[in-house]
Amino acid sequence: MYFDPNDKQSLTAKVYARIRDDIIEGRYSNGDYLVETKLAEELDVSRTPIREALKQLELEDLVVSIPNRGVMVQGMTSHDIDDIFTIRHLIEGQAAYWAAERIDQKSLVRLTEIIELMEMYTRKNDATNLARLDTEFHDVIFSACDSRVLRHILAQLHQNTRQVRRNSLTTPERPTRSLSEHRRVFEAIEQHKPEEAKAAMEAHVANAHNRRADA
């Protein structure tokens, strides 16, 4: 069986998450057709959860149903990615601002651990683990800002740029710069300096966007 039977998440949710990840990670290319029977066989499920998952993905504009043709991947375009970075720049600084005001000790300890691990994996030039830690670093801040709405929006935006962020960490000097930027955000939050945390986060997002434009 492909999915863990002990996982309490619904089968449709698991199928949806798997196909969505495959689209975001680029395992399916824009223009590829997703065939229900083939997906059902690959994931060892019936066609019903496949069909429901594809409907959810169509609501997110990640796939489009074409009459008499099937379901086609349209994924994230370059324009979509640029839009996401622009939106992140507008609102992610606010998450850091609120986190600096509201963060608890447990979350601060975890951010400290993440920074220490980032330092180790930067020395090892391990892009895979750095990408994982980058996601967790931002997730901790999103939770610490104590805004359910903002956390949901930013988590979704980060999911949609996961592959882009991972790829950027394979470029020369990027891991070192990223570590420095994360450390500045962390130090401002640790010292409970909201304005500095906001400015550091906005600079971090802007730098990531600029490096993408220069790539």
Main β-sheet, spatial strand arrangement:
1-3-2
Helical percent range? over 70%
| CATH superfamily heading of the largest domain | GntR ligand-binding domain-like
- Write the H/E string, N to C: HEHHEEHHHHHHH
Structural class by sheet pairing and helices? mainly alpha
Briefly note the CATH topology name of the largest domain: Four Helix Bundle (Hemerythrin (Met), subunit A)
Q: So what's the overall shape?
A: elongated
Plain-language structure description:
With 215 residues, the protein is mainly α. It has 2 domains: 11-73, Arc Repressor Mutant, subunit A, CATH 1.10.10.10; 78-214, GntR ligand-binding domain-like (Four Helix Bundle (Hemerythrin (Met), subunit A)). Helices cover 73% and strands 5% of the residues. It contains 10 helices and 3 strands, in the order αβααββααααααα. The protein has helices at residues 11-24, 36-43, 47-59, 78-102, 105-124, 127-144, 148-160, 162-168, 174-190, 194-214; strands at 33-34, 63-66, 70-73. A 3-stranded antiparallel β-sheet has the order 1-3-2. α1 (11-24) packs across α3, α4 (78-102) packs parallel to α9 (174-190) and α4 packs antiparallel against α10. The longest helix has 25 residues, at 78-102. The termini are far apart.
